[in-house]
Amino acid sequence: MPAADNKALVIAFYEQAFNDHQPEEAAAAHLGETYTQHNPEAQDSPQAFVGYVHWLRGQFPELRLDIKRAVAEGDLVVTHSNLHLKPGDRGMAVADFWRLADGKIVEHWDVIQEVPEKSANDNTMF
């Protein structure tokens, strides 16, 4: 698939799973038969992804993911997002790295940092 299609697929998947509260549908439509997870808090497999989203939403029912940008090259897509666990919080800056094969997401890495109250500069994290 072209990089632009991969980017659109990842954004649709992420929005559907987290903001539309449809992790089962998102996993069925967009994850490969195998899904390798590099986040140490999550297990491999599409079923494990669905369980993780349900667990996270159980902890934080008003969770919201705001995708700020996405970049794609070949079979890799990178998203930069602000993950809000509760309305009004500063949230967490999240960089996700997705690898696709045959039009499906098959591998995921992420880096997560809390958005601090104070910054040494006037720039935002987004």
From TrEMBL:
Query: Which residue intervals define the domain SnoaL-like in the entry?
Result: 10-108
- Give the highest taxon in the source lineage: Bacteria
Q: According to its UniProt record, what is one Pfam family this protein matches? A: SnoaL_2
Write down the Gene3D superfamilies for this protein, in alphabetical order. Answer: 3.10.450.50
Q: For this chain's UniProt record, which GO biological process terms are given? A: polyketide metabolic process
Q: What is this protein called?
A: SnoaL-like domain-containing protein
Record organism: Streptomyces griseoruber
